[in-house]
User: Fold these one by one.
Assistant:
Number 1:
Amino acid sequence: MAITKLDILVVPTYNSKTLGVNDASTYASTPSAPSLEITVPAFGKVTLPFNINTLNVINSTSLGLSDVGSPIIPLPDGVYYLRYSVAPAYENFVERSIMRVDQLQEKFDTAFMRLDMMQCDLAIKTQQKVTLNSIYYFIQGSIAAANNCAIFEANRLYNQANKMLDNFIKAGTCGCSGNNYVTNFY
């Protein structure tokens, strides 16, 4: 006898304006009333109809963050809680928490692209790479923490990465002479 087993995958869209949620469920029969409840950071819960056996692409309009007909805005970064259910909802559901970092990733990409890979001062360039690597690890740590329901740690790591990126971008360079790399890594 076939059993319904619900599962969803959050799929990268590489776009700060969309969230992709794919149905990875197996169904014994066509489900009744499939819905996706999403808790958006700082906005609350939204329940949407869910299309089974396909990728569901969600944006600011579908979440009620922007009006129909107005421009679609970037979705906020932070911890999202997703609950996919089919009737009866109290029995058949699956939950996920994810750390969305798309806006932070765009900021990181901007900082990375400012890095002049062909700069002659190797020590300064190496220090900038070390700084960007540290920021990248904070971002990845934030995602890993959210995936493991360590929400406080996820937010702490996200905030640290954001602060470091702001300082990196504001300084225009690493703000050093390269001595840190020479002293600690050479």
Number 2:
Amino acid sequence: MKISYLDKVMYAGNTSRWLMGQLLHTEKTEPFVGYKGKGLEWGKIDQNVVNDIDFLELHPDDKSTFEIPECVSRLPNLKALKIPSWFVPHLKDNSLPNSVESLHIGVRSEKKTKNQLG
């Protein structure tokens, strides 16, 4: 897969961010207040919010999760996606929806081990 940042919009804090986490990373446990009401269960997206998601951050608990959930690849209005760096080698042509304009690599907590995250 070719990833190019040329002529791409870099989304900043002015857009609503959604969080898809597992057990340790939820809208209640992450310090960013903008996640309130924007938390998603890993690999599941309710149909009533599919069109609302334009910026999504994926925060798995540890490095045993390494692929973008299939439901993310079907988001029609996703413009920006933030993924952990260890997802990069596993990206496939169909991992991202065509609407993605900006791919952010690296999450704030990825340098911590699972034991440090608790």
Number 3:
Amino acid sequence: MTTGNLEKIRNLTFDEVFGIWRASEDFPASHWESVWRAKGHDSWADWRHDTHAALRGSELSWALYRVRNPLQEVPNWRGGMFHAWATWFYGPFPEQPPRLRDLLASPAVHNHWYVREIARNFPFQTTLTAIRLANGDISVVEGMHRACALAMAAYDQILVTTEFTVALADWPLPFGEPPRLGRDK
């Protein structure tokens, strides 16, 4: 459900999308090493390629978009179908995945220290990764904390000044539901 706030900048390859993601996680961030090792992976890239395998298909055409008014646009986006988010936060919501503005009704999200910290100190420049479903809804596939922080900032009327972009692919109609991301390992 976009509202005309997206302005296409250029097409991207999946390798470029993955590079943007890698940079957004401040690679090499040592705090991620314990996570990917605990899940049985040999590297950050191996872990992320595994958890997001559904996004590497040649059926997906990626492009980079500028989001003109992220405080208006992003709260309408849906969360990603990440194993942990679906397990811990999405349960009480009838729509799966829930819209970010609705997800704020969960005290675990609304009071999440990291989401609140990002909302108060949002990066001057950042790029999320998302897919656009057949009905026009956008679902986050990387950057949930930043996306929730924008929804939080909109809710709390916190002024955010950012050069906000999204790497976005249209999720083909035959694929149906948003992809399940992450693993139980």
